[in-house]
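One example copied in:
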Amino acid sequence: MTGPAEERTTAAVRPYVITGGRAGSSRDALPLETLVMASGSTLPPTLQPEYRRIAHFCRGLLSVAEVAAHLGQPPAVVQVLLADLIDWGHIVARPPIKAAERADMDLLRKVLNGLESKL
């Protein structure tokens, strides 16, 4: 039992309640480095508070990981909520840029040799 001077350290609402018991969404999981931003559309007044908080934080460009940190929720929960907001048109997402293909080592050696010969 906690006394009046002790602070509550657990969330008042469990993550499975926030997502409606869902562990996934209608789309592939958003990578943590995906950038998201509010679309500027008007939010319905019946939207649950977590969705509203996400839209508030996403006024600027943030990564999924940053949104999770601001909300204090696990990234998996935020990914589900963000996917809902994207499906409803309230959030736009920019997927991460894929890593470049490994460069041809022979070509890089030729470039390096050419640069060295100019020095």
The first strand starts at residue 35 and ends at 38. Residues 105-118 form the longest helix (14 residues). The helical segments are 15-18, 49-57, 64-71, 75-87, 105-118.
